[in-house]
Queue: 2 jobs
Job 1
Amino acid sequence: MTKEYTEQLFLQEKPTLALLAIWSLQKTYASVITKEINSTFAHTTKILTKMEDNGLVQFTVEGRVKYVELTDHGHRVVDALKNLIMAIEGESPEIQADGGTDTPDINNIQNQEDRIFIRQHINRLHEQMVSTYDNLFAQNSELQAMKMKIGPFSRDIRLLLNSIEENEELIDDDGLDKLNEIQNIFDLVMKQ
């Protein structure tokens, strides 16, 4: 692919959202990404094919299921996209009356952004897992069906736990309670 085409691809909403969804969900399916980015399945598969051509994602087939996940190069691109998004959404330094700038503490801003990101990630994961589990339970789904629906959450849970272990200040009590509930649901289903 030409450089110009690559720039066009990632300066568009759906491909960017798709890449971030794959990063967030880790190992997932094209249909899940389609729902996450509010797109058609055909458009999503076209985006994923272009990403595979660029070495950003890889597909693996396990049984009859075709998974998509980021490559190392894809992870680097996601990091760059997250930095771009934070730079665009970030506040510029306030101008003081004397013409100087009030330079914020970079570490403090990064911790606040990390805290917000972790909180949003926990809330989204909690909502997805609880609703998935409740629906499966209400439908009297078989254990194997429940494991297939709940199992893909394992990488997201592990990533959250690793992030929090590195810096315990990133999570508040409410987030910890939700994370514990997520882990309990996962264990309840997967360890039967």
Job 2
Amino acid sequence: MEQAGLGRRVLALSIDWAIASFTAALVYPLQSSALAPSLFRLGVFVIEVALLTSLGGASAGQRVMGLRVLSWPDNLFLRPGPILLRTILIALVIPAVVTDNDGRGLHDRAAKSVVMRVKQKRA
């Protein structure tokens, strides 16, 4: 496995945000611009990403892009606590944008995690 690039991570995040937006649209219309629908959409995003990452090691978008969230530096599965912390920090945006020399954001450093690209075998 190799560390995931920024492009794959952003695309996976976009897929997860689209899923959260359409799920939240079942309650609030997509065109709503008030604060309550936006916060609801953000809450759906946090729950979806944290739950799927806790259960399967990757959110829906990460799974589509062939990524997996693992512990740093030993590359083992993360417990739900650090995954929830990581997801909340992603929702705050700034920790996800500020990265270190290894390409890990502040959210990954706080949760002691890394996003790895899963290499798939060819038949």
